[in-house]
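Below is a filled-in request sheet from our internal design queue. Each sheet records the structural input a requester submitted and the sequence that came back. We keep these sheets so that new team members can see what a complete request looks like end to end.

REQUESTER: design group, bay 2
PRIORITY: normal
MODE: inverse folding
CHAIN LENGTH: 249
BACKBONE (tokenized):
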């Protein structure tokens, strides 16, 4: 009799539990479905805007560091301790084949071709602001280095009249590496960051071995190249996120 009563109670309670569980799931689905799509879109755009702002600030920091170093070299153009260490680690070899080949990666031809290709790749994803930044930022960075920064700083190696700070060759290669990092999909960014960083380090070593630049000139080129790309890209993306209508027109 007890077993019969227990079985009857169990049979009666199961439908209620199932019904209450279904009500709970329905309630959750109702809450989720009532979230406004505009609110989700607002959160997404806020995240993009914050990311663009951080990128722009990073670029401005790198440009500020290069500018501060340039101001120091205006008054103290001679080699510092970092330059002395770099020259010891990388002995001069003006006829080095590997260094010459790597330095050619910073040529104007490679710069224009690389910026154009990266801009087209970004345009294929319909990210028009990034396509624009990949096209103009690397070329503008090198032009500013050659026509503004170098004459203002006026630094040159002993025995040479060529202006050296910051390195235009390193600026070009770093700018292209930074643009490539921005263009590739998220899953490929770590690989591109490592490969691009290794290439930039190799080019820095090359211009020092050839005695085209002081090591600090090469570091200045890294800051200007990466800083220009990040600052311009972050600024353009920030503007586009604030005014999304212009992207659809």
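RETURNED SEQUENCE:
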């Amino acid at each position: 009799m007890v077993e019969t009563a227990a079985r009857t109670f169990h049979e009666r309670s199961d439908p209620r539990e199932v019904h209450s569980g279904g009500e709970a799931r329905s309630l959750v689905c109702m809450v989720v479905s009532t979230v406004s799509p505009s609110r989700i879109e607002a959160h997404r755009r806020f995240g993009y805007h914050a990311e663009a702002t951080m990128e722009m600030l990073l670029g401005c920091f790198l440009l500020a560091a290069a500018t501060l170093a340039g101001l120091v070299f205006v008054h103290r153009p001679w080699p510092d301790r970092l330059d002395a260490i770099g020259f010891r680690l990388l002995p001069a070899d003006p006829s080095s084949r590997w260094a010459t080949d790597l330095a050619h990666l910073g040529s104007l031809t490679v710069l224009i071709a690389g910026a154009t290709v990266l801009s087209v790749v970004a345009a294929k994803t319909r990210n028009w602001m990034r396509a624009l930044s990949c096209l103009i930022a690397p070329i503008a960075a090198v032009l500013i280095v050659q026509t503004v920064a170098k004459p203002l700083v006026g630094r040159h190696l002993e025995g040479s009249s060529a202006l050296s700070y910051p390195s235009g060759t390193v600026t070009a290669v770093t700018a292209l590496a930074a643009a490539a990092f921005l263009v590739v999909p998220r899953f490929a960014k770590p690989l591109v960051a490592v490969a691009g960083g290794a290439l930039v380090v190799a080019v820095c070593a090359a211009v020092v071995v050839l005695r085209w630049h002081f090591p600090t000139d090469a570091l200045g080129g890294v800051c200007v190249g990466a800083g220009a790309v990040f600052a311009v890209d972050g600024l353009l993306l920030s503007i586009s996120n604030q005014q999304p209508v212009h992207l659809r027109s």
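SHEET NOTES:
- The chain has two domains: 1-33, 57-248.
- Residues 90 and 205 are 7 Å apart (CA to CA).
FILED BY: M.R.
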